[in-house]
User: What shape does this take?
Amino acid sequence: MFWGSRKTINMNYFPDEVLEHVFDFITSHKDRNSVSLVCKSWYKIEKYSRQRVFLGNCYSISPERLIARFPGLKSLTLKGKPHFADFNLVPDDWGGFLYPWIKAMGKSRIGLEELKLKRMVVSDESLELLSKSFPNFKSLVLVSCEGFTTDGLAAIAANCRFLRELDLQENEVEDHRGHWLSCFPESCTSLVSLNFACLKGEINLASLERLVTRSPNLKSLRLNRAVPFDTLQRLLIRAPQLVDLGTGSYVNDPSSEAYKKFKAAIQSCNSIRSLSGFLEVAPRCMSAIYPICENLTFLNLSYAAGLQSNELTKLIQHCRKLQRLWILDCIGDKGLGVVASACKELQELRVFPSDPFDAGNAAVTEEGLVLVSAGCPKLNSLLYFCQRMTNAALITVAKNCTNFIRFRLCILDPIKPDPVTNQPLDEGFGAIVRSCKGLKRLSLSGLLTDQVFYYIGMYAKKLEMLSIAFAGDSDKGMLYVLNGCKKLRKLEIRDCPFGDAALLEDMGKYETMRSLWMSTCEVTLGACKMLAKKMPNLNIEIINENEQTESNLDDNQKVDKMYLYRTLVGHREDAPEFVWLL
Amino acid sequence: MEIGLNTKGGGGDHVGGCEEEKMGFEETELRLGLPGGGGDGGEVQDTSGIDPDEGKLTGLAATDPAKPPAKAQVVGWPPVRSFRKNMLAITATQKSSSDESGGEKAAFVKVSMDGAPYLRKVDLRMYTSYQQLCVALAKMFSSFTIGSCGSQGMMDFMNESKLMDLLNGSDYVPTYEDKDGDWMLVGDVPWEVFVESCKRLGIMKGTEAIGLAPKVVEKCKKRS
Assistant: This one.
């Protein structure tokens, strides 16, 4: 209507509420960030209407500035420690504390409703403050966090009157064997999702049953090891509407009454699409699960160490609609062949090592991966721990599956060459990046030279995260990546011969990335200091666990661990002694 | 019938409590050869270098970072989350102790006693301490040894405090065969670890136990 006119088009003709309504449809963080850059009035409207914020690095901004920037904040995602902290490369007290965030938001008028944390240190104190500061708090998701006990959970249960979601994934929780579950008041009937599979201690089973009974909206329930089979059966009767189930202990005698009742109960749970748990498992009881297999889209048996390959394949054969499968490598190559023939809808496969330290137990090899790639054309996400890999296999996989978004290969011996040709795996990974144009995440392993990085820099144009270990020959390798991967956000490197020249070649690059981790490389303290001096918007942290102080260390000495990240707020104030902020 | 226990701690002037509190998973983790890394709860830094069970180097940070030793275990490799490693370790210990009949909770093991004409079976999971087990064993095998108790007679066995006295300073040494086939003295490891690793029990006469472990008998004598 307005295009015919010669007047300047002015979107400000529309009242703010209209723009706000339009912005409601823009949900992606990236898009909202772009919207806020258009003009001042759009910035303002977006600012006040923004409810969901994602901070990939909790130290990139301070709580106070976040609150000022987005006063309407309702849902916050925070990530703390760098990824390599998962593998013991980051000392415990490095940082990532939740408390300052809760304190600041609690004092402000933020009406926080959802909080999702990953690799943060969460104290009981912060959980308690959280539970008391936000009356509308609805959802708490903790992934790979630590620092809290079941007392903190008790506070959440007791005080969050409208709690819908309590989802604890792989956290280290100290179990005080209190009755945290009993702290949910009788009036709490709003639970939609409850996941306490990572808790090690006993659970008040009667409280659990009562809680499930009074939660008609419960869709997701993941139990811990302490919940026995007969309780599981009773819970299923109370919650046949479940969509996602994590069993606790799955051990029983197939001839028992409890088992018969379970079989009956599970038949009526025809909404279950996602199944996990089996932390303890009796193989002979698995057939009770078969009736629900045909509707499963996600199956996680990666903790079910008690199941052998034939039991696994018998189960998986029934799962024709499976989209995501997490499994242990005891399934074997043959078992993966069964997956390939049965699960035609498969998109994500994760094969974990059942015994990470016994390399003699060759469970899966390149053959299994090739079979899956041939049988599952929709495969786009892979995490594969294997005994060995060949270039030929990777080239075949690249031909079969061009849709990979995430490709993480971990050969258990980190510098193992192609066992058939004795060559490095450069060509194999090169084929992957060439073929999978949408690749966003890549983890490398095996014997690799600078050549693989040449390929990555050349072809992996959409790559956002790259993990490198024991690879490369010289600085050239790292430079290929930094120069070629324009979308790179996270780069983590350990035990590679990359040094100062690579680090300092393009310092501005790091402001376009979230973070860089380098440990046991050739980078010296002097180079890190120079980088810190030239780039005020980067925090360069040196983690030094030896007794040396900063002054003792010569500029020419190599640093053991360096972690750098862009930030708007300069040095953090909570760094422990062994972290030097340059 | 008297069984000498080689256990530590506890009340009284003789074998009383046992180390049942400690879960002992730390020790299990050592056997699996988990590397000692920074700050992973429950892991023991094994700086001695070789884990005898696994024959592998443990807890090493690679001294030459570009070339890790082939069989050595490097910190943080393979890249598996500690949480997952710990969970699998717990499941592994439970798996290895489960019955052939498929994962029920009972842990029946054969018990033999020197001189007894037939063996017995006990369910280790019926007990929560070494003390309880030994009392049960004593009662079980009492019928074979009444004769040797001379004039004391049956009544004393009904009297538990007398039974406790008899458990002290005895000629009999409780031993067990573990997963690896080795014969071990009962009481060294925490109760939970013992239950997971015990395959059968044997109550040996002290004199025969000397062949097993010369110090064993000394220890028992010392305790009484």
